[in-house]
Structure formats: C-alpha cells, structure tokens
TrEMBL record:
<dbReference type="GO" id="GO:0106370">
    <property type="term" value="F:protein-L-histidine N-pros-methyltransferase activity"/>
</dbReference>
<protein>
    <recommendedName>
        <fullName>Methyltransferase-like protein 9</fullName>
    </recommendedName>
</protein>
<dbReference type="InterPro" id="IPR007884">
    <property type="entry name" value="METL9"/>
</dbReference>
<dbReference type="InterPro" id="IPR029063">
    <property type="entry name" value="SAM-dependent_MTases_sf"/>
</dbReference>
<dbReference type="Pfam" id="PF05219">
    <property type="entry name" value="DREV"/>
</dbReference>
Length: 295
C-alpha cells in the first residue's frame, strides 16, 4: 500500500493528501454542515420563509464531476501552466472562460424550483441572468423560460454564453430595453460590483411589478471587492451588511432589500461551489440565497 512519504513528486503527493483528507465520513459531515442554519438567530420575519436545503442529486452530480476532473493530471498541469502565462494580462475570470474551467454551481434544478415554489413544468416568458459567467447556472433555470437574456463583463465568458445561444446584453443595456423581466437572477454579484445598492434599484425598475421575482445569492460573510484588470479594489458604493455570523448578516440584509423596494419571500443556505484543480477537488463558500418580490 502506497503512503504519502513514498511519493516523490510534490504534485502527486499533494493530490494523494487531498484524496486522503476527503474520507467518506468527513466528506458527508462537511457537506451536511453547508446547509445548517440556526433559525433561532433569524429575525421573526425570516423564520417562516426559511427553506431548509440539503445535499441533493443535482448537487452530488456536480461534486462527482468536479472530483473526477481534478484528477485528470495532464489537463490540470496544462491549466496551471496556461493560467500562469495568461495571469500577466487577463483576469482570473477571463482565464477560466478561455480555458473552459472553473464552472460554478449555486443550486440544482430541484432547489431552484423549491425556492420559487414552481413545478418542473412551470413556464414563464423572460429571464435575465446578471453576471452569468459561463452560463452553467443559467442552464439550470433556462428550461422554464421562452427568452433568456444574460450579461457578463469578461469577453471570454461572453464567448461561452454565445455558444450556448443566450442573448447577451451590454452592461448598460439591460436597464433600457423597453421591456420588463419575469425573473431576474443576481447570483454572487452584489459583493463583486462597484455600485451594489444602485444595482438593486435598477433591478427593481425593470422587474415585472406583480408576478416578477428576483433570485439573489450572496456570499457570507460579506467581503465586497471589485476585480479591475487583475487588481482587487474596494467598491465605490457601500452596502451596509452587519453581524458576525451568517444568520446575523442575513437579518441585516432585510433592511437593505426593503430600501431597494423588495421583501424576502424565501431564504435558504446553500454552498457556492466551484470546480477544483490539482490541489482541491472543489472549492466552496457559504451562500445566502433569497427570493425577492417587489413591494
């Protein structure tokens, strides 16, 4: 039986230790903790709308695929080398789009349907996905809509979106199309944009005022910064998020959304997953996912 001390290559040794660190028992314990919320710490208005999520089939498929891809040594070495080369003049997001790597996962089709309280056959007209990345999360929502619009700043990610046949709008175009959207998704974007409060108000202005809904995800704890030419900068507009633990920060977002013209219709805690590399099978952050309705 091979052990880590017999592996001479640092890369191979790292991969071996990564596999050993993900024993089945610790794997399942860690995954269940992704969904834990202390509802006693939520404010009274949020307790009735909290939806308890869990590791489901769709999430497991993404994890299995990520684990498999992280162990393709030749491809991971190629990605590592090309990332080092391109990092001199491209952002991390653009590099991932160019290499077709680093896909993200926010929710499964079943989790999406459960939050919106819809069935698998439910259809609506127009979806807008802001900051859609490579479109893999858009793909989860797209079966429910006739028209799908997306925005993205990275040109290499735009190429990925165009290959998927989505209608790409310019960053300053989606607010001025002359029509409204039935659902707008804003997934892990507020902490990476320069004017998050303004963005929320712009979303409110173009959302269908009665049946329209926003599905919004935000990484907590809240650490806003903007990627600008490979550099990280503070946003010019401050969005007040207070509290030390996940539940406290969720509570403070109630007022942020209210000032932008929204009420929270549903809330859950989900892992924000990203495909891994030769060192980690996948990467994970804590997401708060909200369904917002206009008020």
């Amino acid at each position: 039986m091979w052990t880590g001390q017999h592996l001479r290559s640092p890369v191979t040794r790292s991969m071996y230790m990564n596999m050993m660190n993900h024993s089945e028992a610790s794997y399942w314990k860690e995954n269940q903790e992704w969904y834990v919320c202390d509802t006693g710490k939520l404010c009274e208005s949020l307790r009735p709308v909290f939806v308890q999520s869990f590791l489901d089939h769709g999430t497991q498929i993404f994890l299995n695929r990520s684990i498999e891809k992280s162990r393709w040594l030749s491809i991971q070495l190629y990605h590592s080398f090309m990332s080092s080369v391109f990092s001199m003049f491209l952002s991390r997001t653009s590099i991932n789009g160019l290499l077709g790597r680093g896909s993200m996962f926010v929710f499964s089709p079943e989790q999406f349907q459960r939050l919106l309280k819809i069935n698998p056959d439910w259809k609506s007209y127009r979806l807008l996905d802001l900051g859609a990345g490579d479109g893999e999360v858009t793909k989860v929502m797209s079966p429910h809509f006739e028209e799908i619009y997306v925005t993205e700043m990275s040109q290499t990610m735009i190429w990925q979106l165009q290959k998927k046949k989505y209608r790409v709008l310019e960053i300053d175009e989606w607010q001025n199309t002359g029509f409204q959207y039935d659902v707008i998704s804003c997934l892990n974007l507020l902490d990476r944009c320069d004017r998050p409060v303004t963005l929320l108000k712009e979303i409110r202005n173009v959302l269908e005022p009665t049946r329209g809904r926003v599905i919004l995800a935000l990484v907590l704890p809240f650490h806003p910064y903007v990627e600008n030419g490979g550099k990280w900068e503070k946003p010019s507009e401050v969005m007040e998020v207070n509290g030390k633990v996940w539940e406290e920060q969720v509570n403070s977002l109630t007022e942020v959304f209210h000032e932008a013209g929204f009420a929270i219709e549903a809330l859950t805690r989900l892992p924000y997953l990203c495909e891994g590399d030769m060192y980690n099978d996948y990467y994970v952050l804590d997401d708060a996912v909200f369904i917002l309705k206009p008020v």
